[in-house]
Design a protein that fits this description.
Layout lengths: L2 E6 L3 H12 L6 E6 L2 H10 L4 E5 L8 H10 L4 E6 L4 H9 L4 E4 L7 H32 L3 E6 L4 E4 L1 H7 L3 H4 L4 H4 L1 E4 L9 H8 L3 E2 L4 E4 L5 E12 L5 E10 L1 H15 L9 H18 L2 E10 L1 H8 L1 H17 L6 E6 L2 E9 L2 H16 L2 E3 L2 E3 L2 E9 L6 H17 L5 E3 L4 H15 L8 E10 L5 E12 L3 E3 L5 H6 L3 H21 L6 E6 L1 H4 L4 H12 L6 E6 H6 L1 H14 L2 E7 L16 E4 L1 H5 L5 H16 L3 E5 L4 H9 L4 E3 L9 H10 L23
Parallel strand pairs: 1-2, 1-3, 3-4, 4-5, 18-19, 21-23, 23-24, 24-25, 25-26, 26-27, 27-28
Antiparallel strand pairs: 6-7, 6-12, 8-10, 9-11, 10-11, 11-12, 13-15, 13-18, 14-15, 16-17, 20-21, 20-28, 21-22
Helix pairs in contact: 2-3, 12-13, 18-20, 20-22
C-alpha cells in the first residue's frame, strides 16, 4: 500500500534529503509531493489524498504556529510532523500540544528509520480515526436507545452514563463520573423497601452476568421512584481480566401499570368496574371449595332488569349506560363485603352470596335489592324507574359447579319474569321442563304468522247503566296444530324476549282494525275496539306513524280504535311516553291506562297525560267484598275519573256483587266473564245483531282466565 506524503518546505536541501530517504524505503511504499509554500500545500489538501504532512513552520507565506493551525484546521485526521532545527524545539512542542503527531529534527532527515517511523505514525493515525468513528457510533447508539446504560471501573465507580441513564437517575454524567454506583443508582425492594445490592457489585465480585431482582425500585436523585428491570455484565481487557462492569436497565413502571390494568380489565366489566364472568367463575369455584370444607352453602342471584331495553332504545345508550352504573352502585350496597356483585353483560347481573347457612339469607338480599331498585334513578334530566327479576340457585342443592349454578339461577330468573317481574324465584327441578318448553315455543313462534295460526278473540265492554255493548277488547290466541289453543301468558313474554313482539303487535293492530271496519260495513255498530300495546311497540320511533298507516289502509276511523297501555310501561319513562301519547292523540285514537293502580303510580302525571280512559286492575274488582281498602280505591278512582273527565272501565267483573258495587259508585263501563267470555268475531257479530239495542245479557261465570291480555305486566 502506497502512502501519499506531502512535504512543505522552502529549503531545497531539506526536501531533497527527505525525498531521498523515502525513495530508499522498501517496496516503494511512499509517493512524495513537495511544495514550497503553505498556500500550495493547502491547495493540494483540497484536491489530493494525503496520508502525512511534513511541514516546516517557517515558510515564505506563513510563519510559526499559525502555519500548523491552518493545516490542522483543514486536515485534522491527517498525520502532521513538524520539520525543524534545534532552536525550533519550543515551537514544535507547542505544535504537538495542538495535535501534531511528531517532530523530526533536521539531523535525522537522512536516517533510514524515518520512513518506518512515518509509516507507523500514519497507521496509528488511521487507527485513531477508526476508533473515533467506532466510539462516536457507539455513543450515538447508546444515546439513541431507550435503555439506561452505566459503566463502572473495577472499583464500581462510574465511568460512563448514556442520556437515558441521566434521565432515569436524574444525575448528569459529569457529576456522576467517579461516584460509586450505589450512590448514583440507589435501588430497593418494592415490597420490603430494604436496600438491594446493585448487580454491578455482584458482577465485580463473581465475574458473571447478573440480573436485577424482580420488584426492584430505583430511587432517583430527586426522590421519585421507578420500577426497573434488566441485567449487568462484566467488562474484560484483551487478556480476559475483568476491568469493570456495565448495567443495562429500563423503566417498567408504565408496563407494570399496563399489565395490572389489562389484568383488571380481563376480569372486570369496563362500564361498571364490577367483576365480569371470568372473575365471577373463579370466585364461585373458590366459594364452592370453601363451602364444601365447612359444610355451608352458598347462593347465586341472577338479575335481569325489567324494561331496560325500552329505556335504552328510547333515551339512548349513554343514558342506558349511566342507569346500569347506578344499578351497579345500588346492588353493591345491598350485599356484604364477602359477597360478589358481577355484571355478565347487557342488563344482566349475578351476585354470589357466600358463607350462607340458610336459603333465607339469599331471600333477604333479594328483597333488599327489589326495594333498592324500586327507587327512581336520577339520570341527567330524567327520573327513571326500573325493576328487576331475580332467580336464585343454591349450592349444593342446585349444582356442584359454577356453570350449573349460573344456568339454574338464570332459569329461575325467567320464571320470576313470567310471574309478573319485580320479584324473585328459587330454582326448582321442574323449571328445566319449562325451559325446554320455552325453547320449543320460541322455535315455533318464528313461523306462526306465516302459518296463520294466530287468531283474535273479542271480549265485549258493557255500559253498566244501559247494558249496551259499546266496544270490545281484542285478545290474542295461538291455535297450534299440535298443542291446541294457547293463551297469551304462555308465549307473549317469550315473543318479547326473542324480539318478535313488535311484529306480532302490528299484526294484532291491523287485524283488529280490519275486523272493526268489517263490522262497521255490515251495519253492526260496536263503538271502539281496544288492543293492548306492549312496551316494545311503544318505544318504536315510528309507532304513531304505523298506527296512522294502518288506519289509512283499513279505512277505520281513529276514534274507533282504543290503545290500552299498562301503567307500569308508562312509568318506566314517563317523559318519553308523554311525547308518544301526544303523537298518538294527534292521530285521533282513544288512549287508555290499563291496570291502573297495580304498579308504580301515575297519579302525579295524570293531568299531563293525554288519555281518555282509566282501566283499573282486575285484582281490585275481584277483591270487592273481601277487602274494604280495594273498594275505597275503586270508588276513589271512579270519582277522580269523573272530575278529570276520563272514562273509567272496570276489568275482571265476575260476580253480581261486584257489578252492584260498580253501579252503585257510578262506574261507566265494565268488562269480564260476568258479561261474556272472549269470543270469535262471528259470535260477537251475532250478539250485535240479535241483542236488542246491543244490550248484553249478563252471564254469571265463576272463574276467569289470567291470559287474556296482549301483554300482562
Amino acid at each position: 500500500m502506497v502512502n501519499h506524503v506531502l512535504i512543505i518546505t522552502g529549503n531545497n536541501s531539506d526536501a531533497m534529503l527527505l525525498k531521498d530517504v523515502f525513495g530508499q524505503a522498501k517496496g516503494g511504499s511512499f509517493d512524495i509531493a513537495w511544495v514550497t509554500r503553505l498556500s500550495d500545500g493547502l491547495q493540494r489538501l483540497y484536491t489530493d489524498d494525503v496520508d502525512a504532512i511534513l511541514v516546516d513552520l517557517s515558510l515564505s507565506d506563513s510563519q510559526g504556529i499559525a502555519t500548523f493551525d491552518k493545516l490542522f484546521a483543514i486536515a485534522p485526521q491527517t498525520a502532521i510532523l513538524v520539520l525543524g532545527v534545534e532552536d525550533s524545539a519550543l515551537l514544535a512542542t507547542e505544535a504537538l500540544e495542538r495535535g501534531a503527531q511528531g517532530y523530526l529534527p533536521r539531523e535525522y532527515f537522512n536516517n533510514k528509520l524515518v520512513p518506518q517511523s512515518l509509516n507507523n505514525t500514519i497507521e496509528r493515525k488511521k487507527i485513531e480515526a477508526a476508533l473515533f468513528i467506532e466510539r462516536n457510533r457507539a455513543e450515538i447508539t447508546l444515546n439513541s436507545i431507550s435503555n439506561a446504560v452505566i459503566c463502572t471501573d473495577i472499583s464500581s465507580n462510574i465511568t460512563y452514563m448514556n442520556i437515558t441513564a441521566e434521565g432515569m437517575t436524574r444525575w448528569q454524567r459529569e457529576e456522576a463520573h467517579g461516584h460509586p454506583i450505589r450512590t448514583v443508582m440507589q435501588i430497593v425492594n418494592s415490597e420490603t423497601r430494604e436496600p438491594v445490592i446493585n448487580p454491578i457489585e455482584w458482577v465485580l465480585q463473581r465475574d458473571e452476568v447478573m440480573a436485577l431482582t424482580a420488584g426492584t425500585i430505583l430511587i432517583r436523585r430527586d426522590g421519585s421512584e421507578a420500577a426497573i428491570e434488566d441485567s449487568a455484565a462484566p467488562i474484560h481487557d484483551v487478556n480476559g481480566k475483568i476491568v469493570g462492569a456495565v448495567i443495562v436497565f429500563h423503566d417498567i413502571t408504565l408496563a407494570q401499570a399496563m399489565v395490572t390494568k389489562m389484568a383488571h380489565l380481563a376480569q372486570h366489566d369496563s362500564l361498571t368496574n364490577l367483576p365480569n364472568r371470568v372473575l365471577l367463575h373463579d370466585r364461585i369455584t373458590q366459594a364452592i371449595a370453601l363451602a364444601k370444607r365447612r359444610g355451608t352453602q352458598l347462593a347465586l342471584l341472577f338479575l335481569d332488569l325489567d324494561n331496560f331495553k325500552h329505556i335504552n332504545d328510547s333515551l339512548g345508550h349513554v343514558v342506558g349506560d349511566k342507569l346500569l352504573q347506578s344499578v351497579a352502585r345500588r346492588l353493591c350496597t345491598c350485599v356484604r363485603s364477602s359477597d360478589t356483585v358481577s355484571r355478565l353483560g347487557g342488563d344482566e347481573f349475578v351476585i354470589l352470596v357466600a358463607q350462607d347457612r340458610h336459603e333465607h339469607d339469599a331471600a333477604l338480599i333479594a328483597e333488599k335489592i327489589l326495594a333498592a331498585l324500586a327507587i327512581s334513578h336520577s339520570i341527567d334530566e330524567y327520573d327513571l324507574h326500573v325493576t328487576t327479576s331475580i332467580g336464585i340457585s343454591t349450592y349444593p342443592a342446585d349444582g356442584q359447579d359454577a356453570e350449573t349454578l349460573i344456568k339454574n339461577a338464570d332459569i329461575a330468573m325467567y320464571h320470576a319474569k313470567e310471574k309478573g317481574r319485580n320479584n324473585f324465584r328459587f330454582f326448582k327441578d321442574e323449571m328445566n321442563i319449562r325451559i325446554v318448553e320455552r325453547h320449543a315455543i320460541e322455535t315455533h313462534l318464528r313461523d306462526t304468522l306465516q302459518r296463520q295460526e294466530f287468531e283474535l278473540y273479542y271480549q265485549p265492554k258493557v255500559n253498566l247503566e244501559s247494558g249496551m255493548i259499546n266496544g270490545a277488547e281484542a285478545l290474542l290466541r295461538w291455535r297450534h296444530p299440535a298443542w291446541g289453543m294457547m293463551l297469551p301468558d304462555r308465549f307473549l313474554q317469550i315473543a318479547e324476549d326473542c324480539g318478535l313482539i313488535v311484529t306480532i303487535g302490528r299484526w294484532v293492530l291491523r287485524e283488529a282494525c280490519v275486523q272493526a271496519k268489517r263490522w262497521e260495513e255490515a251495519g253492526q255498530k260496536l263503538g271502539s275496539v281496544a288492543i293492548n300495546i306492549s312496551a316494545a311497540e311503544l318505544r318504536c320511533r315510528d309507532f304513531a306513524d304505523s298506527v296512522q298507516a294502518i288506519l289509512d289502509e283499513t279505512g277505520l276511523e281513529p276514534s274507533c280504535l282504543q290503545l290500552d297501555i299498562a301503567e307500569s310501561i308508562l312509568m318506566c319513562d314517563i317523559e318519553s311516553c308523554i311525547t308518544i301519547l301526544r303523537q298518538l292523540k294527534n292521530v285521533g285514537v282513544l288512549l287508555a291506562i290499563d291496570n291502573f293502580g297495580a304498579g308504580s303510580s301515575s297519579l302525579n302525571y295524570l293531568p299531563q297525560l293525554p288519555i281518555d280512559i282509566l282501566k283499573f286492575a282486575p285484582s281490585f274488582v275481584q277483591n270487592i267484598g273481601r277487602s274494604n281498602e280495594d273498594g275505597i280505591i275503586i270508588s276513589t278512582v271512579i270519582s277522580m275519573g269523573a272530575r278529570l273527565k276520563k272514562r273509567v272501565i272496570a276489568g275482571g267483573v265476575e260476580k253480581q256483587e261486584q257489578l252492584a258495587f260498580l253501579k252503585r259508585h257510578h262506574c261507566e263501563e265494565g268488562q269480564g266473564y260476568f258479561f261474556c267470555r272472549p269470543i270469535v268475531p262471528e259470535q260477537l257479530a251475532c250478539l250485535l245483531v240479535t241483542s236488542p239495542c246491543n244490550k248484553l245479557k249478563y252471564q254469571g261465570i265463576n272463574s276467569a282466565s289470567s291470559g287474556d291480555r296482549l301483554i300482562q305486566y
